[in-house]
C-alpha cells in the first residue's frame, strides 16, 4: 500500500485506472509537503467516498520483451576474453559458433 516516491500525476493515473472501484487509496511520499501525513479516521473532511481498498500495484508486462529481431541466441556465442566492465555490465571478446 506504500508507493514511496511517486509523483502526484502518477498516483492519480493509478487511482483513476478504469478497473478501480470507488474508495481505492494509496500512500506515497509528498513532493512538496515533507514530514506530514493526512489521516481521516472519523470525519471525511471533504472526501466523497470512504477509503476501503488498497490500490493494486501494476506489474510491467515483460512477456515478449526478452528478444528483439536482431538478437542471436546466446548459445551460439563463445566468450573468450573479458575486456573490461562498467556500471552497466561486462565487455567480452568472443566468437560466433554459427
From TrEMBL:
TM region positions: none
Look up the domain of life of the source.
Eukaryota
Q: Check the record and name the InterPro entries matching this protein.
A: Non-receptor_tyrosine_kinases, SH2, SH2_dom_sf
* GO MF entries: ATP binding
| Pfam (any one) | SH2
Per UniProt, the keywords (alphabetical) are:
ATP-binding, Nucleotide-binding, SH2 domain
Q: Which residues are in coiled coils?
A: none
Record-annotated SH2 domain positions:
1-37
UniProt xrefs under SUPFAM superfamilies? SH2 domain
User: How is this protein named in the record?
Assistant: SH2 domain-containing protein
Species of origin reads Bambusicola thoracicus (Chinese bamboo-partridge)
Amino acid at each position: 500500500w506504500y508507493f514511496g516516491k511517486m509523483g502526484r500525476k502518477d498516483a492519480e493515473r493509478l487511482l483513476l485506472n478504469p478497473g478501480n472501484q470507488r474508495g481505492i487509496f494509496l500512500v506515497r511520499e509528498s513532493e512538496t509537503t515533507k514530514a506530514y501525513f493526512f489521516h481521516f479516521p472519523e470525519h471525511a473532511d471533504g472526501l466523497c467516498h470512504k477509503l476501503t481498498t488498497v490500490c493494486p500495484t501494476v506489474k510491467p508486462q515483460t512477456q515478449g520483451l526478452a528478444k528483439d529481431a536482431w538478437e542471436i541466441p546466446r548459445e551460439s556465442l563463445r566468450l573468450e576474453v573479458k575486456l573490461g566492465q562498467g556500471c552497466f555490465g561486462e565487455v567480452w571478446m568472443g566468437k560466433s559458433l554459427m
